[in-house]
Amino acid sequence: MTDYGHPLMFGSFITPTNSDPDRPVALAQLSEAAGLDLVTFQDHPYQAGFLDTWTLLSYVAARTETVHLAGNVLNLPLRPPAVLARSVASLDLLSGGRVELGLGAGAFWDGIAAMGGERLTPGEGVTALEEGIDIIRGVWETTSPGPLRVGGDHHRVDGARRGPEPAHDIGIWLGAYKPRMLRLVGRKADGWLPSMSHLKSLADLTEGNARIDDAATNAGRSPADIRRILNIGPDLSAEQIAQIALDHGFSGFILGSDDPGTLQRFGAEIAPEARERVAAERGGTVRPAFERPAITVRGVRRLSSPDPTAELSDMIDLAAVPDRLRDRVITPRDAGYADVRSGYMYTGRPGAVIMARDVDDVVSAVRFTAGQPAPFAVRSGGHGMGVEVRPGGILLDVSGLDSIEIVDDSTRRVRIGAGATWGHVAAALAERGWAMTTGNFGDTGVGGLGTSGGLGYMVRRYGMTVDHIVAADLVLADGTMVRADPDEHPDLFWAVRGGAGHIGVVTALELEAIDLGSGDVVYGEFLYDATDTGGFLRSWSDTMRDAPRELTTFVSMQRGRGAQPPIAQLQAIWAGDDVDAASAGLTPLLSLAPVLRQQAQVVPYAALVPPLDQRHVGQQTIRMRNGYVREMDDATVDALEALLADAAVARLELRSVGGAVNDVPADAMAFSHRDAEVFAAAWMLPGRERLVDAAWARMRPHVDGLYIGYTTETGPQVTREAYRSNFDRLAGIKDRYDPHGLFRRL
To answer: Which stretch of 37-51, 64-78, 373-387, 497-511 has the lowest confidence by average pLDDT?
Structure first.
């Protein structure tokens, strides 16, 4: 007797007849209404009386909501595997993760050859199927480095781009009967899908399981990882189905019938009874057919594969992990590690990643980490500059703390979890016509940007993000949970606004949102010929010095290449929907340099920072340097012009500040930059650190301090430049609340 423990799955096997094309669609919808988990269609592309199965699956996906879909089984000889991989992944994304992949090596070779397919021997068919599986999985493995290359005898790709990644971990189920096919199931498939009508007796299931299990074990896989699914007829009772499940390990039962009454009875009566019988024998409860992973990761549709042989950190005592965190810790050996080990700008190798669900998880994680020799870092889970933990260390991810709550409508007070991203915040605030000046990218994390600065699209009118914080919740190094506001822990409240990463783990921020009325702003884009780079920079800085506070501009410059002149792209945001006032404010921008392209329109502020929920795997390799410019004098302009011409520089970025930013005293909070008119940043090419430092050295005499939230530069001088005259006060607060240096060093 073999029971692999999978939850039971019940489905329908519908004939894709084209004589009445609405009928198979209606039967699929009936299957869903009857409570079935799966709808499948046979695939015979050479059969003129059938609808094309893939087209039918796509159509049914749009006409259903919850049921999973699969070919039973798709004919690989007539469906090139690389294209099929993209098709399956695309439909999985469009359907919300409802597609499985049944595959066959091919049969009816006269029909296949008539359609232009290659006629194969049975052995060649198995080889071709294995090659196809390698290609399909390779296309889906978007985290693997480099393009995909598979050099098969029948299917091959040479440098194909990977992706898209499916919405969930799609099962590849093989229709198999002969020994070689069964061994392939054990080596590389996720499921075995035979038909009962093709079996001599149930003993064939026992023999097939043995071959699959042996092959799986020899390949280093667990036989229990392979789901067993059986196409059945309408003559089996719930008791018989339960017996096959318990005696032969089959957890999927797909009924071949086009009769509505039979399908209805199968879903409403047979399936529930069979589930209850199996659950009773197992001594557990009925589980859903398709289970989601316990750990969910923002930007990840399916967790990366485990690596049982990966080396574990000798700085972390995993046996001492608190019980409440055991299902939240991901080590290098676990599924999902490749998805969470890195950030946007670095590839990390932590010894453990703790995926916190709530504040209690954060408290438990901090207390656990305080007793470990491993280095510690905290990540809000969004797009950001860094927070890289050293190899073997502990990384606490708080992206699960992503709630957005309106605390008080009258004061526009909003409470936001540190794991939220600003795009989701903008969308939530837009429902009331509110906004928050943040960064210029919707995937930026609230916890990182909200405690380091926030130099965004409306900064000249409404100041920095930190200027809107009215309270914060944070966990200190001893595991204490505290609230910081002007009355309660005012020293921590001072430190949180610009320097919280050095003091504790912020779990939530309360901010006073901005009332935009309609929620709209005027957004303009200008593209200039910046051949006279110095002239453009002087004109831009002079114009912005006298511009209304409602106008904030960002400039991105690239040096000329070949016959192309230097280009300056300018984004202009008027903080409001008064078109006449905005037009007057933007008009001077037309005179900065020869205009190659320009446009302006009224848009919802939230549309400027949409939430993309990207996966971060260290994809941005650019290095960053930045500094604040008090005045754009001739010497500074000359230095910027020389910087742009340097071969190590990929892009020069300039942001207008001043206005409301400089209304706040420099000592009001840890963030200290209240006397500049321009923020300058250089995007440096990777792998050229010496050239990067030499290039930026030209700018150092012309900048005063740096923005810690927008640099990849490290070292003790960085924090001193970031906090300037506030450094000693911040260091004193850190000494009081983090005497052993658990959090980021100053």
So the answer is: 373-387
The length of the chain, given as a count of residues: 746
The whole-number pLDDT of residue 606 equals 95
Rounded CA-CA distance 728/740 in Å is 17
Question: Cα–Cα distance between 223 and 357 in angstroms, integer?
Answer: 32
Q: What is the pLDDT of residue 378?
A: 94
Largest CA distance in the chain: 90
Antiparallel, parallel or unpaired: β 469-475 and 520-529: unpaired
Distance CA 551, CA 458 (A): 7
Q: How far apart are CA 253 and CA 243, in angstroms?
A: 12
End-to-end Cα separation, the chain, in angstroms: 62
149 is written with which tokens? 């290359």
The Cα 343–Cα 353 span in angstroms is 12
Q: In sequence order, what E strands does 637-687 have?
A: 649-656, 678-684
One-letter amino acid for residue 332 of the chain: P
- Identify which of 419, 418, 368 has the alpha carbon closest to the alpha carbon of residue 393: 368
- Neighbouring residues of 190: CB distance < 8 A, sequence distance ≥ 6: 171, 172, 173, 225, 226, 227
Q: Are the CB atoms for 139 and 163 separated by under 8 Å?
A: yes
Whether residue 385 has pLDDT greater than 80: no
For the segment 6-16, the average pLDDT, to the nearest whole number, is 97
Whether 416 contacts 446, CB under 8 Å: yes
How far apart (Å, rounded) are the C-alpha atoms in residues 425 and 325? 28
Please indicate, yes or no, whether the overall pTM of this predicted structure exceeds 0.85: no
Q: CA 154 to CA 126: how far, in whole Å?
A: 10
Complete edge-to-edge strand list for the sheet that includes strand 595-604: 595-604, 520-529, 567-574, 551-558, 649-656, 678-684, 623-629
Joined tokens for residue 249: 């390990």
Q: What is the pLDDT of residue 386?
A: 62
How far are the Cα atoms of 24, 145, 248, 436, 646 from residue 544, in angstroms, in the given order? 64, 44, 76, 22, 26
CB 25 within 8 A of CB 241: no
Q: Is the pLDDT of residue 688 over 90?
A: no
Report which residue type is found at 57: L
Is 641's pLDDT higher than 80? yes
**Both tokens of residue 596?**
């190659």
